[in-house]
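The pair is quoted verbatim as follows:
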Amino acid sequence: MQDVNLVDLSAFADSLYRELMRSHEKRFEARIKNIRRASDELSTVAARLEVSIRNAWGTLDKTTSEQGLRLVQTIKETTNQISNQEIASDYNGLESFHKTSVVASDKIILTIRKYVPKLYKAMKTEIASLNSSLTKLETAINEFGNSLDNSPGSAIESLKTDIRTLLEKEHTLNELRSDNREIRKKLDSSLDGERALLEEQQSLLSHDTFRQLLQLEDALRSKAEIIEQFLQPLGKALKKYERISDDETLDHQVLTRLVENPLTAVSEIDPQTLLRVFNAVNGALIRGGLGIEERKRKRAEEVIVSIAQGDLEQLRTEYVSIQERIKNTDAQLQATGLLDKKRELTESLTRTRTETAQLNTLLAENEKRIEDVTRMLSKEKSMIEDEIARLSQKTITIRAEPSN
């Protein structure tokens, strides 16, 4: 078992390539020499064919002669590509040379098929030499291709590609982890800012005037609940009466406001106007015109009697009084700048909490990506370890960090 650090994995693959390909290199060199030798021979034969075509000017028609010279020119240019191509020392360089040779051979074959039939009768010997040389070139190219296929070069290049992919993912993982650290710093800073704002807000709200305002707001909410509970038994009766009433003497807008928002109606409409509406509803209840069950009808009538006795007006007076005191207290806070300060703190807290929520979301997304990439890395490390074992019978373990 051998440990290989991730950062050394490419160098390990290069070393493995040299080790496994050593026994094939001489064979490659010989096959490449054969290709170039056959290419040069084909070029020489083409040159002889050119001389023959030029010497046969009298026996060949102009078109055939021109086609023959084009054939020669194509062969010379194409074989020149094979003879002069520089070959990189790695497997990809060898593959590139083989592909170039195959393309060149195919081009020559197509050109010969196109032009040779017209030359064949007049140039049998030269064409036979041309075909023989072309066969040698094709054979040499095929032998080189077989040598490449029988070597582990393709498998090692595939391994190198997998290693590059692995290193890219490792780089991505490191970037994600770095991003995570930055997000956590920003999140900690945002939470610290939120705590500082809350402390400042708490200090501000401990001011006597603010305490008084909070008490008044609590009292207003409590009084509002009492009024809503007091009017609750009338809710159904008011809705039904609104639908069926055709009393032109009644202010139907007041009736509608009582149905939609009874608390606001009570606080903003004078008691006598409200009482006229309630009395009209009571008359409909007594006549049985609203179709409400007996128990609920009696309860609604009792509430209206209580309203007539001034109970709702008393609740309204207390509610409006608290509203006025809140208004006066707000004015005091506004005059001293405390209300603006509270608003600024509230806005800052809202922004900070929004930022905190966004950072938490970003952190969760980033950590999910880290989990995904880590899982893929683990899988690909195992695949590469298996590839190396198949190629070289060497058992390795890939380490993300250099071993100490």
